[in-house]
Amino acid sequence: MDIVDEITRAHREVADGTRKSVLVRRTYDAGVEDVWAACTDPDRLRRWFLPVTGDFRVGGTYQLEGNAGGEILRCEPPKLLRLTWLFGDNPGFSEVEVRLTADGDATLFELRHTADVPPEMWSQYGPGATGVGWDLSLLGLSLYLLSGDGAIPDEATFHQTDEGRRVITASSRAWGDAHLAAGAPQDQVTAAVINTTAFYAPE
């Protein structure tokens, strides 16, 4: 398979208000219970995303290894998970919501990340700063659901491969298109796509 196709299969939306929001929506060729377990079972989650520890209940907390942590706000298997997504000492408001909808033998997957984003970061990188990261994570989920064995790209070296650079470039451009559709000026979008691509795939 050409994994760049995994980027083009997703629909993206950007809400550029006081709080910024990115939405990625796509269909996985797997049952809703299987996708839910891949996203919430710690043993499965670490195979395509990151190791996670915590008190896995509504009101409990979680911590992803070397990444975000927070509180579990809602959990309605197998259709809805919402949690705070906090990173660093003073992260401000940040929430992630995942919605799953059965579509026959497939699953419609929607992830929305809403956050307070510093204006200087948004003007420099736009939605791609967060969006490309989610695209790469959801690429891991797609490959995991296809293979079942956790054979996902190595995050530390993926950007150094030709394939990895094509994926990152395609993702960054796709978020630029979503940003443009949300009303951002073309020159701001063009600069943000360049900056985001250089951040995720430095020469």
Automatic annotation (TrEMBL):
One Pfam family it belongs to: AHSA1
Matches recorded under SUPFAM superfamilies: Bet v1-like (SSF55961)
Lineage: superkingdom: Bacteria
Annotated ranges, domain Activator of Hsp90 ATPase homologue 1/2-like C-terminal: 30-141
Family indicated by similarity: Belongs to the AHA1 family.
Name this polypeptide is given: Activator of HSP90 ATPase
